[in-house]
Structure formats: C-alpha cells, structure tokens
C-alpha cells in the first residue's frame, strides 16, 4: 500500500511539473504571438501553440533523460534547434528579418521546460517570466541603449571590473597591525558605495530637471548630498527667488543620507539596525518634514535645473582613494580605541564626518563585529552624520543667500541635536 501511495505521489508531482513546463511555454508563446498578431496564419514560425509544445517537450526530454537514457535531452534539444534553424532560414528571404531573438526564445523555452521537471519549478518560472519581460520590452530596451552615452558605458564596465573581477581575487582574511584590515571586506565596501553612487547618478539622469527640486534632491542624496548643497547654494545666488525651494532640496538630500547609512549597516552588521533606527529615523523625518513644509509654501515657484552630473558616474581613481580612506579610518579606529577608549572613537567619527559619512559608517559597522561595542558605534555614526550636516549647513550659509542659510540651519540644528540626545540616551 505504501509503495502504491509513493508511486501515486511521484506520478502526480511529475504531472504537475509537466503542466508547469507547458504553461511556461505558453507564457512566452503569448508574448511572441502578440508581437506577430498582425501576420496571416502560417506566417508565424512559432506562436503560443508552438512555444507551449516546446516547453512540454523540454520537460519530457528531461524526464526521459532520467528514466530512459541520458542522451534524450541533448538529442531532442538538437532536433528542436535544427528544426527552428530550418524554419527561420526558409522565412528569412521573405521577411528580411535577420534577428535571432525569436530563435533564442524558442530554445530557452525548451530549457525552461526541462528545468521545471528536473531541477526547480521556482527557478524555471522566474527565468520564463524574466525572458517574457525582456522579449516584450524591445522598444524600451533599445530606447535606453540609444540614450546611453559613452562615458556612462565606461562607468558601468568599471563597476563590473571592481566588483566581479577584482573582488573575488582579494584575500578574505585579517591582516595589518592588530589584524584590523580585511582586503576583501574593504574592497567590498568600496563596491557597495560605488554601486549606490552609480544608481544615484542614473536616477538623476533619467528623472530629468522637469521633476523639480524634490525628485532631484531625493536621489542626489544617494550619491552626494554635499555636491548638491554646493550647487544649490551657488544657484541661490543667481536666482534668489528660488532660495526656499533650494533650501527644501538641500534638506531632502541631507535627509536621504540617513537611509543610506541604514543600508550600509544592514549589509555590514544588521545588529546595528535596531539601536540606530530611532535616532537616525528621527533625524531624517525632521529634515523631510521641514523640507515638505517649505516646499508646500513655495511649490508654485519655477522649477530649477538638476545638479550638473559628472562626466563619469564612477571614477576608478576615486574608488581607490575611498578604499585608502576607509583603511586609514579602520586603523585609526583600532588604535584610538586602544589608547582613548570610546572617546577616541567619537573623536574619529567627528573628524571623519567632516569629509565623508559613508567611509566612517562602513568602518565603524565593520569594527562593531567585535572590536567596538554596538552602542558606541551607534553614537559614533550619529556624531559623524551630525558633523557632516553641520559642514553642509555652513556651506549653505556661506555660499548661498541669507534666506537659504536661515531655512537650512534651523532644521539641521534641531535634527542633529535630537539625534545626538536619542543616541546618547539609548
């Protein structure tokens, strides 16, 4: 009885997997059939029926490979590929279409059917859905490619170079004085910061100036709120009537720095999220609310240009300099902790925050794994962020109009004092 039950379950599962293989083929076939819906009957090489059957055939070939012969899958795959090649070759002189996208989609459909039966249903489904999305967005993908500039392509390749090429080559072990440095982790942090800056660059580029101060500042905070502060301060001198909107933009960019800090800690040491949540969230909310109040009072003002973007979203030289800065901060953090205790960490956070919050945040989060207590790290991060915002408030006051400085300084002061009190109290 148990053998019959086990056999029934096995057959039932196989039937389900073959059904999924058929449905995945139908999914891709629907997209392919919709694209060729205007063609007459017989002109389409592969529509919904063909793709559905090819998906089912892929599942059957995987099943035969496990039950009959291991040659079943490769032989049937070659048969499908050969039949498709003959059909596309015969159709090519009439259609003058030399694209092989449809052929690749058909062969992938066969493979998805096999994966659904022999490997994993979820993996096959995810791959089929992604394939259907890619096939369906031909115009959008080509449009983005046409808008891509050469220096942006160069930046993307550099990001791949420092991540998938260089990162795996670095040793993942502690070295240096006091075993304070780990080359792999330092470079991985560099990649993390570079990737966020890369995403922030394209968010600004694709958003365009028509989104106004709010959208621009929100995403500029992912890459460099300091650069945006400098740009908006100078812009306020040229267009004094826009000072309130520019102040709102600076506050939004500075507020966006705090979610970025939380992201760093989430990746490096998730245990810091809970003690950081209240002070960091409060500081961000205070800046956002102040910016929203200013914007609502002056939202009818004309839109301003987005900050000027660098010619290269990802300079490899700057990434290397960040890695050096990160290593120096980690060494100083180790030595100051030994010499001065927690006071040394706070001094390091304050001085490092003048230049960059990301580097000191990543360093302290790394050291919190054992060298420094989490509550000390939390207060150090808040100190660094507060000092950094003080510097930006000084930029707004010194380089911008008086109105810009007044609208930026007060929310900044309230935000940093509240954050420091909460971090100290917790």
Number of helices: 17
What's the gyration radius in Å? 29 Å
> How many DSSP E strands?
0
Order of helices and strands: HHHHHHHHHHHHHHHHH
Classify the secondary structure makeup into a structural class.
mainly alpha
* Unreliable residue runs: 302-310
Largest sheet: none
Overall 3D form: elongated
For the residues shown, what is the average pLDDT?
75
Domain DUF4010: 191-400
Pfam families: DUF4010 (PF13194), MgtC (PF02308)
Transmembrane segments: 15-34, 46-65, 71-90, 102-135, 186-206, 212-233, 245-266, 272-295, 316-337, 343-365, 377-396, 408-425
Domain MgtC/SapB/SrpB/YhiD N-terminal: 18-142
Name the features.
elongated; 426 residues; 17 helices; 2 domains; mainly alpha
Short note summarizing the structure:
With 426 residues, the protein is mainly α. It contains 17 helices and no strands.
SSE topology sketch:
Elements: H1 2-35, H2 48-67, H3 72-95, H4 101-118, H5 121-136, H6 138-147, H7 150-165, H8 183-207, H9 212-223, H10 225-238, H11 243-268, H12 273-297, H13 316-340, H14 342-353, H15 357-367, H16 374-399, H17 402-425
Keywords: Membrane, Transmembrane, Transmembrane helix
Transmembrane segments: 15-34, 46-65, 71-90, 102-135, 186-206, 212-233, 245-266, 272-295, 316-337, 343-365, 377-396, 408-425
InterPro entries: DUF4010, MgtC_SapB_SrpB_YhiD_N
């Amino acid at each position: 009885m148990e053998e019959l039950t086990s056999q029934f379950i096995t057959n039932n599962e196989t039937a389900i997997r073959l059904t999924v293989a058929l449905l995945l083929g139908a999914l891709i076939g629907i997209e392919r059939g919709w694209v060729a819906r205007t063609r007459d009957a017989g002109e389409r090489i592969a529509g919904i029926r063909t793709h559905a059957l090819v998906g089912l055939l892929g599942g059957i070939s995987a099943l035969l490979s496990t039950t009959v012969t291991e040659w079943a899958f490769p032989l049937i795959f070659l048969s499908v590929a050969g039949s498709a090649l003959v059909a596309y070759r015969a159709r090519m002189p009439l259609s003058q279409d030399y694209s092989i996208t449809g052929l690749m989609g058909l062969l992938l459909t066969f493979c998805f059917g096999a994966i659904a039966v022999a490997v994993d249903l979820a993996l096959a489904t995810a791959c089929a859905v992604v394939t259907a999305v890619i096939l369906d967005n031909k115009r959008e993908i080509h449009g983005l490619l046409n808008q891509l500039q050469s220096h942006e392509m160069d930046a993307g390749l550099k990001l791949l170079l420092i991540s998938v090429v260089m990162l795996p080559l670095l040793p993942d072990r502690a070295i240096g004085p006091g075993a304070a440095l780990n080359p792999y982790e330092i470079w991985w942090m560099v990649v993390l910061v570079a990737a966020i800056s890369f995403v922030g660059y394209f968010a600004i580029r694709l958003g365009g100036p028509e989104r106004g101060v709010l959208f621009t500042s929100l995403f500029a905070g992912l890459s460099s709120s300091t650069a945006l502060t400098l740009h908006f301060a100078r812009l306020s001198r040229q267009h004094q009537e826009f000072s309130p909107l520019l102040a709102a933009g600076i506050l939004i960019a500075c507020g966006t720095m705090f979610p970025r800090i939380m992201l760093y800690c989430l990746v490096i040491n998730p245990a810091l999220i809970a003690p950081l949540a209240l002070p960091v969230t409060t500081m961000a909310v205070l800046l956002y609310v102040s910016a929203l109040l200013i914007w609502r009072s002056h939202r009818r003002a004309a839109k301003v240009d987005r900050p000027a973007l660098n010619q290269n979203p990802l300079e490899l030289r700057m990434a290397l300099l960040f890695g050096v800065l990160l290593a120096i901060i980690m060494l100083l953090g180790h030595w100051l902790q030994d010499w001065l205790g927690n006071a040394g960490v706070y001094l390091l956070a304050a001085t490092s925050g003048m230049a960059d919050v990301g580097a000191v945040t990543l360093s302290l989060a790394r050291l919190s794994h054992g060298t420094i207590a989490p509550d000390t790290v939390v207060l150090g991060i808040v100190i660094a962020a507060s000092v950094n915002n003080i510097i930006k408030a000084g930029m707004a006051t010194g380089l911008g109009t008086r109105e810009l400085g007044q609208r930026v300084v007060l929310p900044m002061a309230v935000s940093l004092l509240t954050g420091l009190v909460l971090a100290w109290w917790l």
